[in-house]
Amino acid sequence: MRTSLIYRNGTVYEVLMRALYGRHYTARYRAIAELIPEGASAIDLCCGPATLYTRYLRRKSVVYTGLDLNERFVARVVEAGGRGEVWNLRSDDALPPADYVIMQASLYHFLPEPRPVIDRMLAAATKQVIIAEPVRNLATSNNPVLATIGKRFTDAGDGEQAHRFTEQTLDEFFAEYGPRVVRQSLIAGGREKLYVLTA
Questions:
Q1: Residue 93: CB partners within 8 Å, gap ≥ 6?
Q2: Domains contained in the chain, number
Q3: Whole-angstrom Cα distance, residue 32 to residue 28?
Q4: Residue 146's CATH number
Q5: pLDDT tens digits for range 44-87
Q6: Dihedral sign of CA atoms 180, 115, 152, 72 in order
Q7: Which residue spans within 24-180 are E strands per DSSP?
């Protein structure tokens, strides 16, 4: 599977994400971890190198499953003591059930039509769906060099993703889920927006 450099190695992924988010890097994970109670079950979609699990959820005895298209990232989940599966979210396969179903910084991969993924998340969750999505992005920069870099680093194995959400377009998208949205707030210094939906 051919991917962008950022997705080829878990350490490279974390270094680049730390550089991108700066002092807000840990805040983006803490905001999600605080929503998951001790001993709960959680499915983390597009889980990356298991940072949410290894640094925040493992010590809370969360029954964690990380799903990702990247075999190397899934291997890191398993090595860390979680359950991991190679999973293509573009398929129509039903997701495994869990108390909480999480997706962080990956919904844009499913543009222009992310509803099927959200609907499968809602069907799998017994308590809540938690989504944090970037609303400030390099790929939408007015600087053409930065925008090109932002777009080229987004191939997780299924092609480059040129489109991104803004805060306005993300709000408009989630407005369709109406009363299911029980929380929305900016996190990580305003770089991401967090949505919590009831199952």
A1: 87
A2: 1
A3: 7
A4: 3.40.50.150
A5: 999 998 899 999 999 999 999 999 999 989 999 999 999 999 99
A6: positive
A7: 41-45, 63-68, 83-86, 98-104, 125-134
